[in-house]
Amino acid sequence: MADAPFLLLSVRGEDEAADDEYRAMMRFAGLDHERLHRIRLTHQPLGPVALAEWSGVILGGGPYNVSDDPDGKSPTQRRVEDELAGLLAEIIARDFPFLGCCYGVGTLGAAIGAVVDRAHSEPVGAVTVALTAQGRSDPLFAGLPDTFDAFGGHKEAASALPHGVARLARSADCPVQAFRVGANVYATQFHPELDVDGLCTRIDVYKNHGYFAPETAQSLKDAARRRVVTHPMEILRRFAQRYARSN
Predict the structure, then answer these.
(1) CA-based diameter of the chain, in Å?
(2) What pLDDT shows up at residue 215?
(3) Which domains does the chain have, with CATH numbers?
(4) Strand partners, 116
(5) Where's the Glutamine amidotransferase domain (predicted)?
């Protein structure tokens, strides 16, 4: 009996970044094309998702922010947000395995009533993540160092979580680097799929998206290569191993 695949939801409209993200998700999760199916929400509607057919759902990052000015959101962004809101409501209700990477903090945070705003943005590059007590006992994070480096870069973040939501990690400038809803629904502000080569690819693709001054792209790459980022990928691998199941 074959394993039920995982579903990757991509919100990257740019082929180079989207394809690099897909390859990284497969590599670090230990999955292949048969076990990680991708839907590019920028290219097609989500359509019905029968959760029983999947081992879990992974949401990748991208240039969308739920806190963007509503008047400035494109029709595609509004459609994607509406589709994700409906799916996340079902995922939360069923406590279905979910891992949202970066954009997941905004979308999952909005779904549970977290405060999502621009108060705790972080620049593109490496950030030192610190586990909370709840993080140190969480199945996906337990055994990782109390502090480790990860790659990220975001305009919005969760400033506060509702009561009963487990805050798993933080950083110096961002109080919520990871959280868990129920037992199986996760979001990370950092990117668990991102190594230095992937970060450099995204710096090239998104250098005109307002994350940093375009002329600083090379210095950001140089700074990233001076950091050792290996632990976040373990979270992605554990997610795939923990929730893989047979159809």
Answers:
(1) 52
(2) 96
(3) 6-243 (3.40.50.880)
(4) 158
(5) 52-194
Q: Cβ–Cβ contacts within 10 Å for residue 82, how many?
A: 11
Q: What are the distances in angstroms from CA 214 to CA 194, 205, 208, 220?
A: 21, 11, 6, 10
Q: Report the 10 Å Cβ neighbour count for 94.
A: 14
Structure tokens at 58: 């992974």
Torsion of CA 190, 196, 201, 206, to 10 degrees: 40
If DSSP codes are grouped into helix, strand and coil, which group holds residue 231? Answer: coil
- Tell me the per-residue pLDDT of 106-123, one tens digit each, with 9 for 90 and over: 999 999 999 999 999 999
For residues 92 and 185, is the Cβ–Cβ distance under 8 A? yes
Q: Which long-range contacts (CB under 8 A, 24 or more apart) does 15-18 make?
A: 16/201, 16/204, 16/205, 17/62, 17/201, 17/202, 17/205, 17/206, 18/42
pTM: 0.97
Q: First CA to last CA across the chain, in angstroms?
A: 7
Distance CA 217, CA 27 (A): 26
Tokens of 5: 């695949």
Closest CA relative to residue 82, chosen from 96, 66, 71, 97 = 66
Which residue from 139, 45, 29, 43 is spatially nearest to 87, judged by alpha carbons? 45
Our CA dihedral for 36, 41, 45, 50, rounded to 10 degrees, sits at 30
Identity of the residue numbered 92 = I
Place of tokens 């409906």: 86
